[in-house]
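Colleagues,

For the teaching module next term, I've prepared a clean inverse folding example: a structure given as tokens, and then the sequence designed for it. I'd like students to try predicting residues themselves before seeing the answer, so please don't circulate the second half yet.
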């Protein structure tokens, strides 16, 4: 057979006479995307995604059906080609009802595959569950204890009765594995010879260091505090997160090759310039460790404490003198940690002063309920007007009574003072938990107008070459731990690309989302959520022991089995979504009309067919006809309403289908699912 020589993207290629441009590209290791091609059937060229441009030809060519020719010069990524592919993909995605990921994962700031690890727990496989979650999150046990679980707020099981207890499942599986000598451990890539310094040993710094080390870089994690963990150790009380759990997960990160140095303060022990000179890249994850002041007269009195300062002192073994009556100002999780810690230190009366109502409190609802059970008194619609004192020490706090006005930028109704209306609390101390600030003075990086490190949201780069920043110290400021972890995980990939010579910005993956209602799950059996009872409030307010023991194996498996498995079973192997993520798409510009009716059926008995995910590439029809020799599938209808449906004429052919499955293997999306 005659040998042909051609060029694809400037790469010399060789193929045999009769082969296509797609064949030649594959021989050379060049990917040309396609959705309707399979080597087992004849060329078709229906999807329009494999188009390329050849010099001397005015038309775009379909690589899967265009025969290669001697001397051909082909380009696969010209502006014209990209535009044509984007339009083809946007048209497909505008009508695609794929539900790529479950809403739990879509709303996890850390992008953890909740559905996948919950399923593994349901099967009793905690080892595999932890392997899955550690693709994105190196501190799953810590997060299982403390995360306010935004994933659960979007869990579709709530359309049946109640959301899955995802955080409790994560806690169970992660702690189980921490205690297992045969637990899963990651493999580290070969050494790259590159050195990375990470400043800050909190959730973000630990995460960035972990993944960069696994990528083969030599990583040093530098922390000014005596021990690693950041706010997980110094900002979250022992009863919420046992420090033995922090120790265990920090040790695992060290085992992954991260060198850790504690008690080293940049700006005190060495300059940032000297630190930066030792590394090929630096990641700043310095957190927000400075408490925001009250901003009212009397805030300088003895007995006025910052929320973070108070919690850190307790974590370091100190017992701050807060007296018997304490007012905690604020409505977030730090305020809840502070008031409940004050109770455990022996305060007889602990108030939470919050300028809005409970409905507007940003704190986790469970934390508020638990604080109330422990005797904390909530003073809603009040705000400190003045801290009162004698001889330089707090004696009380004068509260301005508030009412709710119009919504502010966050959507919450703004608190407005009620003119002339005040009340006074007699207290011995006031703890301000109204926000956290960054202390970036040791780092000569550009700051935004809020005094926070300005970092590009796609590359995490600061204004200094090779210096990146993530977590609470950047852009939006302090957030929940899983948000800092997610950002650091994404940053690690960008830093890795930078060290390899070409910075690749982070781009949020494109996914198809399905809109559902309770009616879609009307046939599901109602199964109660598995709850773990906390110790009584009167008991737990006397100690720093955990609130509960967590799930037993049986409880965890039962709870995990409630998962509806919303995300597509074929997401990781779906050619459509992989190609859709090659380019920034805007399918909504084609999505103004009515979508096809999306139904799912099992007439093939062992195969579930989901019309919502079908792109009419016709591969299943052709494979059934040309490869299996059965011709059980066909196109029904014409135009936009066309669908693929099976037709059985006798029981023998049903049996053939039952043992075949070739159509499922060929499907480029998750439209076909084997049930056996």
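(Answer key — instructors only)
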């Amino acid at each position: 057979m005659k040998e042909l020589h051609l060029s694809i993207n400037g790469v010399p290629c060789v193929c045999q006479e009769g082969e296509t441009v797609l064949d030649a590209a594959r021989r050379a290791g060049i990917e040309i995307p396609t959705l309707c091609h399979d080597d087992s059937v004849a060329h078709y060229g229906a999807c329009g995604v494999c188009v390329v441009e050849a010099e001397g030809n005015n038309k775009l060519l379909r690589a899967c059906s265009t025969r290669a020719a001697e001397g051909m010069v082909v380009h696969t990524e010209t502006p014209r080609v990209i535009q044509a592919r984007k339009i083809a993909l946007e048209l497909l995605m505008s009508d695609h009802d794929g539900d790529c990921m479950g809403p739990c994962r879509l709303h996890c700031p850390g992008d953890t595959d909740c559905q996948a690890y919950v399923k593994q727990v349901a099967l009793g496989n905690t080892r595999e569950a932890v392997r899955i979650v550690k693709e994105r999150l190196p501190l799953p046990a810590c997060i299982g204890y403390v995360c306010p679980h935004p994933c659960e707020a979007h869990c579709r099981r709530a359309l049946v009765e109640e959301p899955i207890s995802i955080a409790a499942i994560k806690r169970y599986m992660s702690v189980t594995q921490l205690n297992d000598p045969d637990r899963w451990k990651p493999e580290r890539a070969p050494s790259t010879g590159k050195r990375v310094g990470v400043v800050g040993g909190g959730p973000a710094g630990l995460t960035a260091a972990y993944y960069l080390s696994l990528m083969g870089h030599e990583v040093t994690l530098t922390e000014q505090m005596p021990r690693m963990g950041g706010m997980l150790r110094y900002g979250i009380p022992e009863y919420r997160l046992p420090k033995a759990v922090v120790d265990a997960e920090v040790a695992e990160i060290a085992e992954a090759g991260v060198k850790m140095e504690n008690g080293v303060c940049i700006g005190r022990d060495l300059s940032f310039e000297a630190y930066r000179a030792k590394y090929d890249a630096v990641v700043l994850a310095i957190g927000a460790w400075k408490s925001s002041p009250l901003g009212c007269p009397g805030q300088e009195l003895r007995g006025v404490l910052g929320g973070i300062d108070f919690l850190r002192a307790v974590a370091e073994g100190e017992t701050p003198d807060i007296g018997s009556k304490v007012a905690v100002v604020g409505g977030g999780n730090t305020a809840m940690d502070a008031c409940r810690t004050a109770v455990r230190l022996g305060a007889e009366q602990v108030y939470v002063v919050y300028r809005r109502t409970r409905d507007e409190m940003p704190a986790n609802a469970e934390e508020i309920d638990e604080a109330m059970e422990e005797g904390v008194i909530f003073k809603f619609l009040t705000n400190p007007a003045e801290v009162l004192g004698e001889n330089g020490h707090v004696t009380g706090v004068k509260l301005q009574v508030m009412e709710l006005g119009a919504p502010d930028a966050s959507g919450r109704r703004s608190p407005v003072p009620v003119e002339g209306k005040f009340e006074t609390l007699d207290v011995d101390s006031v703890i301000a938990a109204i926000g956290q600030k960054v202390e970036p003075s040791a780092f000569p990086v550009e700051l935004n107008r809020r005094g926070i490190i300005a970092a590009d949201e796609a590359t995490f780069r600061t204004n200094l070459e090779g210096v990146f920043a993530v977590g609470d110290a950047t852009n939006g400021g302090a957030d929940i731990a899983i948000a800092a972890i997610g950002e650091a995980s994404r940053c690690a990939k960008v830093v890795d690309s930078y060290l390899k010579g070409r910075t690749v910005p982070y781009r949020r993956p494109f996914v198809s989302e399905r809109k559902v209602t309770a009616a879609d799950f009307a046939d599901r059996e109602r199964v109660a959520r598995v709850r773990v009872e906390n110790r009584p409030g009167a008991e737990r307010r006397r100690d720093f022991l955990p609130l509960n023991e967590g799930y037993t194996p049986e409880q965890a498996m039962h709870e995990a089995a409630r998962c509806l498995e919303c995300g597509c079973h074929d997401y990781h192997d779906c050619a459509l979504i992989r190609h859709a993520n090659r380019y920034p798409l805007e399918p909504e510009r084609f999505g103004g009309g009515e979508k096809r009716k999306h139904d799912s059926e099992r007439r093939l008995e062992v195969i579930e067919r989901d019309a919502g995910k079908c792109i009419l590439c016709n591969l299943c029809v052709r494979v059934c006809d040309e490869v299996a020799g059965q011709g059980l599938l066909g196109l029904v209808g014409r135009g936009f309403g066309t669908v693929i449906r099976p037709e059985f004429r006798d029981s023998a052919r049903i049996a053939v289908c039952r043992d075949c499955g070739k159509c499922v293997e060929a499907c480029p999306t998750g439209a076909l699912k084997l049930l056996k």
